[in-house]
Amino acid sequence: MAANSSATHGRQIIKHLGQSKGRALTLREAAIIGVGRAPVKSGSGKSVTELFMEAAIEAINDAGVSRLDGIYVGNMMSGFLQHQEHLGSMMATALGREGVPAYKVEGACASGGVAVNAGVKAVLSGLEEIVLVGGVEKMSGYSTPEVTKGLMMAEDRPRVGATGVSFVGLNAMIARAYMHKYQVPHEAIAGFPVLCHKNALDNPKAQFHKNITVDDVLKSPLVADPLRLFDCSGIGDGAAAVILAPLDTARKFTDTPVRVAASTVATDALSLYQRPDVTVFEASRTASQRAYTAAHLKPADISVLEVHDAFSVLGIMALEDLGFARKGEGSMLVKDGACERDGRLPTNTFGGLKARGHPVGASGVYQVAELALQLSNKADKCQVPNPSAGLSQSVGGIGGTIAVHILERME
Amino acid sequence: MTNPVEIKGVTCSKCHWSDVFPAPICPRCYGPTTDTTFPGHGRIASFTIIHNPPLGFEKESPYTVALVDIQDGPRVMARVKTAQEELRIGQVVKLVSSSNGLLEFGA
User: Fold this and answer.
1) Taking the model in full, what pTM does it have?
2) Mind listing the domains of chain A with CATH numbers?
3) Annotation marks residue A83 as catalytic
4) Nearest CA of chain A to the CA of B78: how many Å?
5) Are A396 and A107 in contact (CB under 8 A)?
6) Residue B20 and residue B60 in contact, taking contact as beta carbons nearer than 8 Å
7) Domain extent listing, chain B
8) What is the pLDDT of residues A328-375, one digit of tens each?
9) Cα distance from A233 to chain B (closest Cα, Å)?
10) Catalytic site residue A109?
11) What is the ipTM of this complex?
12) What is the C-alpha to C-alpha distance for residues A284 and B53, in angstroms, rounded to an integer?
């Protein structure tokens, strides 16, 4: 029955487009009607399926939906770490939704953001109405060298794997080039993880509940020079989920739907050595410019921001590449307090990747879920005052894939 | 030990794109590529010293990985053997060895 109604709706849209000669086409829009988040933990003791179900069931109950027309599972490393693929069918089975089309979506550390994009496209197409997007990753319980090797699957391993570079090492080369080119000291970049740890104190589902100082960052052990332990997000298990629906039906399910104003993905050269300038993520610029155009918004209209601070320098670069600061000046926003929850650009309000945690394939969904909570005034102690529009940026690999979402509060 | 003075690679006959890895077709203009050699020296664009290595590299740690801009050639990711305290961006390094796709540079 669900499939029939979707197909009918699809035909109606095609018919509508066919009749709209010379007029601006009005496509269907998508909304978020429910969210779910498992707490991020190292050593959760939970399986990939258990983590996913925890977030998915919370989102399904939050939306109050009984039917699902599609399931999208963002995940990067289940094949490598758990020797388990076929997560689409696996999660459909776990949720008792055999028959529903289900997909694993992989875009390295942006898997979650790309999965949300896939789910949004399904709703916009008219082929699916009620869509579950979940991101999940289980990273703890394995040796650090093993996880480090797994993360390198996001680079061009046949070409650069023999150098022994680690994923942190790639970001360390970005950090060194950035600090050199713009004469920004490590102290300035270290302000980003300090901000995230402070924000995470109010998020009961964050991995870390501990204030840190710039000095703590600069005195933590070197992982890949110049990046130190507290410059880097940790290893953890987690899952987050959102339920998407057509905007025009969203109020049937919730009084506080959040409009998906833009959902974009852009790619760039896969390997760091293929980039002429490693101090910028071109895919961030491309994806965000497309998103601002689609949403009819500009950076100044964004009132809450979630960026992919897997490493301190990436948080700073994101502020620049997404249009909030000029190159080399991102750290000034953090220093000036603009990124605090009571500042003019509240950023990583639940702790970001650094302190909420970065279960890689889940992070992009956590970001979107957290923005949805902010825009529906359900963020509890993490709430920022009356945000109207939020933007999230999810980075895959070393910027080879970047997903951007802009969400808006409904009037 | 041999002391290679040149780096093998490919260059596009039409648009002059180049790389040190084999590529029969140029990814920029889809034109044919030809085998070529680049000078065995370049400048460090950035570098890192790996303290927490991936599986299989534990015994070599700490070691230096760098982006090197080959003179009149492409950028590569390579090992650098120079003493770590002497490393800096812009420094000239020379090819020391090349085997199984891994380039190693030194002062």
Assistant:
1) 0.94
2) 2-141+239-252 (3.40.47.10), 144-234+259-409 (3.40.47.10)
3) no
4) 6
5) yes
6) no
7) 6-106
8) 999 999 999 999 999 999 999 999 999 999 999 999 999 999 999 999
9) 14
10) yes
11) 0.96
12) 28
